[in-house]
Specification:
Elements: H1 27-45, E1 46-52, H2 54-57, E2 67-73, H3 79-95, E3 102-108, H4 109-113, H5 121-128, E4 130-133, H6 148-155, H7 158-171, H8 175-201, H9 208-218, H10 223-234, H11 242-262
Parallel strand pairs: 2-3
Antiparallel strand pairs: 1-2, 1-4
Length: about 270
């Protein structure tokens, strides 16, 4: 069998990124991220931290790219923890002009190890995250292949999330709010479109332009819409009208097609 890029000879995911791929402009940003999160949580609560996205892949562009990180705590995060992370995000974004935004994911380590996250967050950590500090959770996790199960559990919730995205779009009144939402929606649609066809393509890529092109091979009628989403994911401010077009056109079709091909993501367990 011939495998696409991003896989090893056995057809399993190669881990993306490495700390030695972080380019010089972004090295001080990463160092400050480690310092600030370490000071906030300390070794008693901080299990491990990770980078993901363009910075550890070595493709980040100064002044354009954002900083993406994931923090695993030894216990479940509190509202105060989330507020502290938001403050770290804002502080880093203000201090370093080479980044355009900061996003830090915060989870308890038990959730990342849980069976229900085995093909979603756990896969994300094992395959798309670069270890930054602490013991690497990937050592405890299986090897992954680009299967329909993985597609379903990572991106099979677009139909569930679409009403909320429309509500957010209606509530976004400032240019900054709409730009931020456009970037998030566009990224989500491109990644969902790629994982829709990922098992057939038999490979992996996080590059948004390539993701859109791979998708377009299988769904040529929607190829240009997906290319537009990929462009907006990189420079959302340049496409002020695209958010509504995506949410009324590409997104509902993609959500329905995903359900037809891979099914819906398993719902989270009910509390209590």
């Amino acid at each position: 069998m011939t495998h696409g890029r991003g896989l090893d000879r056995d057809g399993c995911f190669l881990r993306e990124g490495a700390l030695d791929h972080v380019s010089a402009p972004f090295a001080p940003v990463v160092a400050e991220l480690v310092a600030r999160t370490g000071a906030r949580f300390g070794p008693g609560r901080l299990h491990s931290s990770y980078l993901f996205g363009s910075i550890p892949r070595g493709t980040a562009v100064p002044g354009v790219s954002d900083l993406d990180a994931l923090i695993a705590l030894r216990d479940e995060p509190t509202d105060a923890d989330r507020a502290a992370v938001r403050a770290v995000e804002q502080g880093l974004d203000a201090a370093f002009p080479q980044i355009d935004g900061v996003g830090i994911l915060l989870f308890g380590v038990d959730r990342l190890r849980s069976e229900r996250e085995r093909y979603d967050l756990a896969w994300f950590v094992a395959c798309l995250c670069t270890p930054l500090s602490g013991p690497d959770l990937a050592a405890e996790l299986p090897r992954y292949r680009p299967t329909s199960l993985l597609a379903r559990e990572t991106n099979g919730d677009l139909s569930h999330g679409l009403p909320r995205l429309r509500e957010q779009a209606a509530a976004a009144t400032t240019e900054a709010e709409r730009t931020r939402l456009t970037r998030g929606v566009a990224r989500r649609l491109v990644r969902t479109g790629f994982t829709l066809v990922m098992p057939r393509w038999g490979g992996w890529t996080s590059d948004l332009t390539e993701s859109a092109e791979v998708f377009g091979r299988y769904y040529p009628a929607y190829a240009e819409q997906m290319r537009a989403a990929a462009r907006a994911a990189r420079t959302p401010a340049a496409y002020p009208e695209l958010l509504d077009e995506l949410l009324t056109g590409l997104a509902p079709w993609l959500a329905a097609e995903y359900l037809a091909v891979h099914g819906a993501k398993a719902p989270p367990p009910q509390a209590g």
